[in-house]
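BUG: 3D viewer hangs when loading the predicted structure for this chain

Environment: internal workstation, default settings.
Expected: structure renders.
Actual: progress bar stalls at 90%.

Input used:
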Amino acid sequence: MKQYDLVSQEDEWGCGAACVASLLGITYREAKNLVEDIKGRSVNAKPHGLELHHIALALQAEGVKVIADWDSAVHHPDGSIVCIGGKSRYKYEHYILKTPNGWMDPWFDLKKNNMVAKYRDDYPKGADFLVALIPVQA
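Structure tokens produced before the viewer hung:
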């Protein structure tokens, strides 16, 4: 695996783990283990998914420092993991990763039992920016 490769989430609540995998250039399973060690339980366990700090601490453990930014006007450099929400096709919040190829969406079309990642030019229709984890030089 290389950094910014497409990584499909393998769990209903695994979008954050897939973004971590793509950013670090590791497999989904390796990233899932990292974030679940921080969360202390499965990504599918309640509360479902990952909070921002789970992702930030997992990245920090791998030497990637990030800062959280709630300003949607800020330029998001490659490596930014953005949490989107709102009245989009996603019922709950969803993480996507900014890459040189566009936004890596780990579950592009939400087809049941077909979690396939693809690159997007922009946020999914109807999605709002909520918060970003932006990589910084350590």
